[in-house]
Amino acid sequence: MSTIREVAKVANVSVATVSRVMNEKGYVSEKARVAVLQAIKQLDYRPNRVARSLFQKRSGLIGLIVPDITNPYFPQLARAVEDMAHKHGYQVILCNTDEQFQKEHEYIQSLEAMHVDGLIITTNYSNNPNYETIEVPIVALDRVLQGAIPTVTSNGYDGGKKAAQFLLDHGADELVVISGPSKLPTIKKRRDGFEEVAGKHLVASIESPFHFQGALDAANYLFDHYTCNGIFAANDVIAAATIQVAAERGIAIPEQLQVIGYDGIELGQMISPPLTTIAQPIYQMGELAAKLLIQRIEGKEIAAVHHELTVEVIERETTKRKDEQI
Amino acid sequence: MSTIREVAKVANVSVATVSRVMNEKGYVSEKARVAVLQAIKQLDYRPNRVARSLFQKRSGLIGLIVPDITNPYFPQLARAVEDMAHKHGYQVILCNTDEQFQKEHEYIQSLEAMHVDGLIITTNYSNNPNYETIEVPIVALDRVLQGAIPTVTSNGYDGGKKAAQFLLDHGADELVVISGPSKLPTIKKRRDGFEEVAGKHLVASIESPFHFQGALDAANYLFDHYTCNGIFAANDVIAAATIQVAAERGIAIPEQLQVIGYDGIELGQMISPPLTTIAQPIYQMGELAAKLLIQRIEGKEIAAVHHELTVEVIERETTKRKDEQI
Q: ipTM greater than 0.85, yes or no?
């Protein structure tokens, strides 16, 4: 990536002269102007950068960085961001980082180089020092980053508490949480909330990867070693895996085992029996993140920096009806 | 969106003069040059267009137009496109059209205005006259467009035949196809292939929307009016809905009813029992589409225009084992 300094050096003029040429402001000799334009071409100095400097305009692009769009939590989030962006005349560039620091870093660099107007980041690298050096507005979605970066999350601690209370209220008294990776703060909160309300009814607390195959292993491990009648899965994919393993083992849901998930993705409706879950307002979270970002891009004041939306129980058929509880 | 003609009109010069200013080629009086630059600013003529004309460079952007990223078929496709694009230094702009002609039209216009280098389109508007006027390379994915536009699809006709043969081979003899919208050529082929092989064993051919709620209605309608022991669902979402309705009605799968889906999305593994399905090579299709597009963008010859990939049966637990068939 060439810089304005290299352009100045190759054209044998000052940086100020390059800037004057690009901004079409102030006096520049025809010879210097030609030299600068030739240097820009020779060095492959980014045309968008030139255009931006020339006209001080927006690119109309927003970068959306997700771990993996095939994780079924993210399509709805991406859809909401794209809908809101579209409404305001922005386009969304989709980036998948696989939670790899290096990949995230590269994406941020190339997005900055193509002059995106802002970034929406769902990342685990909450202490990535790069964020402080990024010049465009950022909003963090589903994660809390450091400092003054606006965030949109949901109340996972309350969600965990609600899950435990719901299972207790519906007659389960031997409770297990199958948590996601506990190094993720948003996941840890769900577990902590659940454990607090479960109290003496907590039988075990097991960690599982977020992907389905890993969750199958976690569920098999659980059923091999523990007896329980109520499970809180830290996301709906883990819940689906738990239900599949229970079905293979002939454990009746919800009669012998009640299961409650977390997220509220469409998957929960598609499995049999349909999944009771703690639903995040995923679409609204994506919408709000995009709205906050666009407000920041357009230089507007935003009311609050950290937005934590509420979650709610969606009762389906993996838990007992209240009147069946005893 | 302003055009070069409007710029010329406002600047009171010819289009050729505007072009000369933008290309920094040929003689232009200083007065005309200033007038053109002012007109460009006044009309908000897109800076990328200017930059592109100035330097004849690529934007590094690929537009990916899908009906809806929350339809679980598309995330894997989008992921594959993005992976391949990333490998070649391109970024992917995600657009959701909801299968609305007007929305698709608007997206194509704004993507062209921001000078994407190419477009990957999964669309139902196979006769959209706009495609012929698009100046950048296009590849059609999961759909066949008219003319010389390269396409990547899978062999749905063969998939339908394989589904029927598999059910017959595993002891089902009263067959139903729950098709998707038959106005879609790729869907019609799946149904046609199935019907051909099912022959005298075909009990009914029912059309369902692709979304889960609509598919629940279709399955209920089917079970209310027909008796069958083998169902081919035109996608995995319809299969999941069919299995859920069967479970609610106490129909044992696969003992009383065998079900086979189509697509091979991860959902099929997550439901209980796990779904036997005709798998498209979704990731490879996305990869190939992106690869073909990049070859076209970079001016390389592409070997063939229409690529139809093969599909295969993934046997899971919604169909009987061969030795259980009688």
A: no
